[in-house]
């Protein structure tokens, strides 16, 4: 987060190198440990950005944990719950979220 940010993690440089520091948040403890801030995007303007891991979600089976994709067969209710958790961890309204799709080609 940019200096003075109020998000769940803070990646400001400190003596001894960059570190992640958690900030409080209701029901986002496990998820906040899995957010990877995108400081360069946040410095570009009024945007909150982060990359996620698969930790901290409610999906089950093959989609276990923080699946954010509606396509592919995961339960829509689980995906919606995961997206609400992510929005809460970022401190934004779920309807304000915008996503990008990453395609890997070998």
TrEMBL record:
Annotated catalysed reactions: inosine + phosphate = alpha-D-ribose 1-phosphate + hypoxanthine; adenosine + phosphate = alpha-D-ribose 1-phosphate + adenine; S-methyl-5'-thioadenosine + phosphate = 5-(methylsulfanyl)-alpha-D-ribose 1-phosphate + adenine; adenosine + H2O + H(+) = inosine + NH4(+)
Pfam families: Cu-oxidase_4 (PF02578)
Keywords for the protein's UniProt record, in alphabetical order: Metal-binding, Transferase, Zinc
Composition bias, Basic and acidic residues: 9-30
Domain of life: Bacteria
One MF annotation (Gene Ontology) recorded for this entry: S-methyl-5-thioadenosine phosphorylase activity
Tagged with keyword Zinc: yes
Residue span of region Disordered: 1-30
Function: Purine nucleoside enzyme that catalyzes the phosphorolysis of adenosine and inosine nucleosides, yielding D-ribose 1-phosphate and the respective free bases, adenine and hypoxanthine. Also catalyzes the phosphorolysis of S-methyl-5'-thioadenosine into adenine and S-methyl-5-thio-alpha-D-ribose 1-phosphate. Also has adenosine deaminase activity.
Family: Belongs to the purine nucleoside phosphorylase YfiH/LACC1 family.
Protein name: Laccase domain-containing protein
């Amino acid at each position: 987060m940019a200096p003075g940010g109020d998000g769940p993690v803070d990646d400001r440089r400190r003596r001894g190198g960059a570190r992640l520091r958690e900030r409080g948040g209701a029901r986002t403890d496990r998820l906040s440990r899995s957010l990877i801030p995108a400081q360069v995007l946040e410095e570009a303007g009024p945007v909150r950005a982060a990359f996620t891991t698969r930790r901290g979600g409610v999906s089950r089976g093959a989609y276990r944990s923080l699946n954010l994709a509606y396509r592919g067969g995961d339960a829509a209710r689980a995906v919606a719950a995961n997206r609400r958790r992510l929005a809460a961890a970022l401190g934004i309204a779920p309807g304000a979220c915008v996503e990008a799709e990453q395609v890997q080609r070998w």
